[in-house]
Amino acid sequence: MIDRLCDQAREGDLAVAWLYCDYKVQQQQTLINIMGAILKRLVGREIPEDIRKAFEEGRRPVLADLMGMLRIAIAKLPQVFICIDALDECLPKDLPQLLESLRDIVRESPGTRIFLTGRPHVSEAIQKYFTRVVVIPIRPNEDDMRKYLEMRLDRDEVPEAMDNSLRAEIVGVILDKMSNMCVCETPRCEIYTY
Amino acid sequence: MAQTTYTNSIAFGDGNAYCGNTIGSYNTTNYNSEEDAKIMGWLSPLEPDNRHHGVRTNRFEGVGDWLLETREFREWRGGEGGAHKAVLFCPGGPGVGKTHLR
Q1: Among A43, A34, A36, which Cα is nearest to A16's?
Q2: Which of the 8 DSSP states describes residue A82?
Q3: Which domains does chain A have, with CATH numbers?
Q4: Hey, are the CB atoms on B100 and A194 less than 8 Å from each other?
Q5: Which of B16, B46, B69, B71 could form a disulfide with A37 if both were Cys (CB 3.0 to 4.6 A apart)?
Q6: How high is the pLDDT of residue B8?
Q7: pLDDT tens digits for range A58-76
Q8: B87 close to B77: Cβ distance less than 8 angstroms
Q9: Test mutation, A29, A138, A182, chain B, max B CBs within 10 A
Q10: Is the pLDDT of residue B64 over 60?
Q11: Regions in chain A scoring below 70 on pLDDT
């Protein structure tokens, strides 16, 4: 989705910032670092004067600094999309303030769009800060699984052993098994992600 | 002097750096000067562009297209509703492909 938005961004009518939360590196993904990363994306190559000046002051930026810089950066852009993946993997102590900061951004610039993904339980936290949230649950669908299987079969290391009927049988059997599986609580479900 | 963004700023193992052997070839965002690269590192050591490249490499075309076709997505994308409909949340269990939505 980020790519889709970026394609449109190239046409000049929007800007996209994104971040993938990852519990393995939670300690680096502090609120400050997350907001800073979003700001970096939105600023692009031309660093605005306010950021340059703040840097020259020589102290570490605090949240209020970054929010001020973000406000200025967003005001210069036509429309801003902020995408944060795996919200449940961000530092639990930082999550409320992260959502609060996003809410403040939206209040200031109502055209800003926020795209979030995460395990279902984070919706409670999101709803504390946003009274209305568009929710589209992600479930692996047959079409996506079929595309994945076709791709893996194309990479088969022994192509001479494969023919169309074997191919169809493999896809059919796996899809059938998948449809009988409970949704994604087993490691096998990683198959859906690639 | 042109400089890649990660050179001064990245901490090894940063999840948004993805993996070390791909970032050098991909990250071509050059700043105008060494000073600019330092400022960017000062803003945040995270480099989401690099992680995104990793995700993009592992994804394949067409998956998740259904999402982009939904009315909910289009309304959100179009900005209808202003601040009241600013947030799109896609919940999903582990491994359902949230990260790899196209």
Answers
A1: A43
A2: E
A3: 2-129 (3.40.50.300), 142-193 (no CATH)
A4: yes
A5: B46
A6: 33
A7: 899 999 999 999 999 999 9
A8: no
A9: A138
A10: yes
A11: 1-13, 140-141, 178-194
CB pair distance less than 8 Å for B97 and A34: no
Condensed to tens digits (0 to 9), the pLDDT of residues B23-34 reads 333 333 567 889
Among all chains, which residue has been given the structure tokens 């009274």? Answer: A131
Q: What 3-state class would DSSP assign to B21?
A: helix
Q: Which residues pair with A79 in a beta bridge?
A: none
Greater confidence, B62 or A36? A36
Q: pTM for the complete prediction?
A: 0.72
Q: Rounded to whole angstroms, how far apart are CA atoms A168 and B50?
A: 37
**Beta-carbon-side half-sphere exposure of residue A166 (alpha carbons within 13 Å):** 9
Task: Say if the Cβ atoms of B68 and A34 lie within 8 Å.
Answer: no
- Tokens standing for A27? 């300690």
B8 touches chain A (CB under 8 A): no
pLDDT in tens, B65-98: 778 888 888 888 887 767 778 999 998 876 665 6
For residue B33, give the chain A residue with the closest CA: A45
Tokens of A83: 């995408």
Which amino acid, A35? M
- What would you report as the CA-atom Rg of chain A, rounded to the nearest whole angstrom? 21
**A39 chain-B contacts, CB cut-off 8 A:** 43-44
Query: Which of residues A191 and B38 earns the better pLDDT score?
Result: B38
**Contact between A134 and B48 using a beta-carbon 8 Å cutoff:** no
> ipTM beyond 0.85?
no
pLDDT value for A53: 95
How many A×B Cβ pairs under 8 Å?
227
CB A111 within 8 A of CB A77: no
**Cross-chain residue pair A19–B68, CB shorter than 8 Å:** no
For residues A82 and A17, the answer to whether their CB atoms sit within 8 Å is: yes
* Pairing of β B3-4 and β B30-31: antiparallel
